[in-house]
């Protein structure tokens, strides 16, 4: 029961800070991609692969507060209640959308790497793909931060 109330409080806090429009959606999409990546970790049987994927998970997880910060600042300067993207922050939203897509494809790459490692014992090539995709996530978050600074 306590978890229910904690979730409700967090939802109200998110509504207050992120609004209910595009900035909330961008944040939540990024968080869902991160959750998916962590779910994939649960099924990794190879310790070496698991350890490598956890390092990447930690790096991606460290980006969530930055994404939230961008979304909170964007909501503060250009509030959104619907699906319309405030024109002044179009580049910010584009970068956040790319980051959300990139974290989802990173999770997908981790899943494929896990499967390849289980089937063929060849996870190293897939691991490089996961790392490359994680770098794209970082690039997109940095781009969102730059675009927000420029727009402000």
In short:
The protein is mostly helical.
Write structural notes for this entry.
This protein is an all-alpha fold. The protein is built from 6 helices and no strands. Helix 2 packs parallel to helix 5 (90-120), helix 3 packs parallel to helix 6 (124-151) and helix 5 packs antiparallel against helix 6. The termini are far apart.
Can you lay out the helices and strands and say which pair or pack?
Elements: H1 2-18, H2 22-41, H3 47-61, H4 64-77, H5 90-120, H6 124-151
Helix pairs in contact: 2-3, 2-4, 2-5, 3-6, 4-6, 5-6
Protein name: Dehydrogenase
Organism: Arthrobacter echini
* CATH architecture type: Up-down Bundle
What fraction of the residues are assigned to beta strands by DSSP? under 5%
Helix content: over 70%
Number of helices: 6
Keywords:
152 residues, mainly alpha, Four Helix Bundle (Hemerythrin (Met), subunit A), globular
């Amino acid at each position: 029961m306590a978890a229910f109330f904690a979730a409700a409080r967090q939802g109200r806090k998110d509504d207050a800070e992120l609004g209910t429009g595009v900035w909330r959606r961008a944040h939540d999409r990024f968080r869902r991609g991160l959750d998916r990546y962590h779910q994939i970790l649960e099924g990794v049987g190879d310790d070496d692969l698991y350890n490598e994927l956890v390092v990447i998970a930690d790096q991606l997880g460290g980006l969530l507060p930055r994404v939230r910060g961008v979304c909170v600042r964007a909501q503060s300067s250009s509030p959104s209640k619907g699906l319309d993207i405030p024109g002044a922050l179009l580049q910010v939203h584009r970068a956040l959308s790319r980051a959300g897509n990139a974290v989802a494809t990173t999770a997908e790459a981790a899943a494929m790497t896990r499967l390849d490692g289980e089937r063929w014992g060849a996870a190293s090539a897939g691991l490089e793909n996961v790392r490359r995709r994680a770098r794209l996530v970082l690039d997109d978050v940095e781009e969102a931060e730059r675009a927000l600074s420029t727009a402000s």
